[in-house]
Amino acid sequence: EVQLVESGGGLVQPGRSLRLSCTASGFTFGDYAMSWVRQAPGKGLEWVGFIRSKAYGGTTEYAASVKGRFTISRDDSKSIAYLQMNSLKTEDTAVYYCTRERQQQLAYYYYYYMDVWGKGTTVTVSS
Amino acid sequence: DIQMTQSPSTLSASVGDRVTITCRASQSISSWLAWYQQKPGKAPKLLIYKASSLESGVPSRFSGSGSGTEFTLTISSLQPDDFATYYCQQYNSYPITFGQGTRLEIK
Q1: In sequence order, what are the residues at sequence separation of 6 or more whose Cβ sits closer than 8 angstroms to the Cβ of residue B104?
Q2: Residue A35 and residue B96: Cβ atoms within 8 Å?
Q3: Which end of chain A offers a freer environment for a tag, N or C, measured as fewer CB atoms within 10 Å?
Q4: Residue of A nearest to B32 (CA)
């Protein structure tokens, strides 16, 4: 069974750091790009960032709201994706979902959509 | 950034109804659009990708259409399990953006 399990959430003070993990199983993790999406309480979905597979450079993309503060990385040997969150703000309070990205190709371009989601982990930033 | 606007924000319908949710992009995204269903306290679930391709395992009463800037999600005959919030999402370019969601309620 394909599964993503997030961990590492919790209560943290503004300005502090937290690292989330996403442990994958049931598929060849290294073959897939991965993303993080968050949802503030009572709000809609907000894309946080994305990391390509090593075969496509392992490069990353970020939302403007987190760029320079959050870093996505991956350890293919452990089938884990990470979201390192620094300089946390109260507005970062949300459920954070890890997603697997399915790739589509058109000519020289690649497009990715989220086909598998974890159950999420809650991050609360408060003093 | 590409803005995604869904309408309506809330939709009241009955079991057996045919319902349509619209999603508009602020610029052309070709067919790079996905639809997700989310129930309270649960993770979103992929329904449709590339505007009209049905994800494996998703009931055939769900369908998607459109290209460019205007897209629709149609549920042909509502079932009790379909009452949820639906989101469109463009994956044409970064940053990835979602619509604000459409809450489908029981009338």
Answers
A1: B11, B13, B19, B21, B78, B82, B83, B84, B85, B86
A2: yes
A3: N
A4: A111
